[in-house]
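User: Show me a protein chain along with its predicted structure.
Assistant: Here is one chain, sequence first, then structure tokens.
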Amino acid sequence: MCCGCFIYGSVHVKMPRRDVIERVLGIVDYVLLEGLNEKNWRELVRRDWRTIIVVIVLLIYFKALRLLTKIVSLYYRLRYGIGFKGDMEYVAELANNRHIKIETVDEDLVSIYEKDREAFTGILWRNPFWTFSIIGAVILILLKHILWFIPPTSLIFIILKYILLPLSVAFIIMPILAIPELFRRKTMTIRDAKLINRVQELINQGHKVLIVRGEEHIEYIVGELRKRGIECEVLS
């Protein structure tokens, strides 16, 4: 561990490796966490009503992620007797125990909109999954007419109604289901740029930093920091 920058790729519903985190916490004096702030979504919708569909889908996604985290937390509590509120919260607790400075370095919905409106207005209407939606709608219309001519007890009827019909519905709503992932890809560099600037600032001041970020962010962050002359050790 020769460098002043360390980065851990985390899975949000999985407990980070305590041994790895604590080993680095003995060296660093800053911990920088991920945490997209969605609390100002009302302000965003007031600014531009066209963002409302993407905003609603994202809010539902965040709620689902929190629910999944609670389920995982129950598993950790029952099996290991460990309280788990999420990967970032877990690292923050370990850092607090050592009195290390903690910062959540991320964007919010309004700031992302100001930097790239297409992240909200473009990913819905330019969604590549609309092709699947059209295919699903065509299949659904065909099934609506075909099923009347097939005996309900036949194998073909069962396959069409209980396999192909749900599949066509899934195809229809696929553009909506894809929004969280498309949003993540569209905004990842915007969100990471803020973190990279903060890391450079702290390193230039002589601090040692631990970054905890979703594992899909790691390659880009490490590459951009290297361009600025900062080598960041990837922990695993």
